Amino acid sequence: MTETESTTDAFDRESVRSASRIAIAALALVGVLYLFTLLPGVDRLVPLTPVTFAAVASAVVTVAVVALLLFAAPKVASLTRTALHRTDAADHVERIAENAGALAYWLVVLAAVLVAHRGLAGAVVPLIDGFAWAYDAAFLVASFVPLVFVVARLTVTVDPLSELVADRVSGSESAGDDPTEDADGPGTDADGAEPSAGDDPGESADAPTDADGPTAIDAAGSQGHSIGERWGVDDESGDAHDKSAADESADDSTSS
């Protein structure tokens, strides 16, 4: 593992740890607030105010949760970009990763605005009795800011995302085609028939064969000599017959 890879892994782990710690802390605060609302007397009004103790506690927890969400927004965006980033990816894939990170950031900010509107209502609206519409209008304007950025990022993501889908679909269709394969398939001759396993290309078509099968063997050999002449072996029976004939002719000449 190189130094760059180890640094990237450490950065990713730190970002994940920070984001998960923020999420766990926010859930813990919500759980504590729910337990606080179960206590007796929390629905009573704070002296000299139209606000209850539960609303005050809810407002405090809401401010803490909103702060955690705003602090976690850059880390969530960084994790989203890291998850979608590829070193050898095309340009449109890099644009998708960048836009996805920005989308994650502004969605977390929008969530923080909505949480603030819901959590602070119990403590703020009673104090501005008669101007509740101003409270809603203020948060409506505040929520428009992240919403506009979300819409803008979605708009610029449509084109590279469509290119990515086209690349994936066209790549999956052409993956099964093998341009090296012939139309008649591998291992076929000009007529489309596969060569037989027993065919020997070195065998001549005019090789002499007898009627019964394999090629006839000449007993006299390739030079026309007999086996006895080729190996230097005399025919013993022929020699004995020639010797007896010579003896008989000699006896006839003597007697005459």
From TrEMBL:
The UniProt transmembrane annotation reads: 22-39, 51-72, 103-125, 131-152
Signal sequence coordinates: none
Low complexity bias locations: 185-195, 205-221
Chain positions covered by the region annotation Disordered: 168-256
Bias type Acidic residues, positions? 175-184
User: Keyword Transmembrane, does the record have it?
Assistant: yes
This chain belongs to the protein called: Uncharacterized protein
Record keywords, A-Z: Membrane, Transmembrane, Transmembrane helix
Where composition is biased (Basic and acidic residues), the residues are 227-246
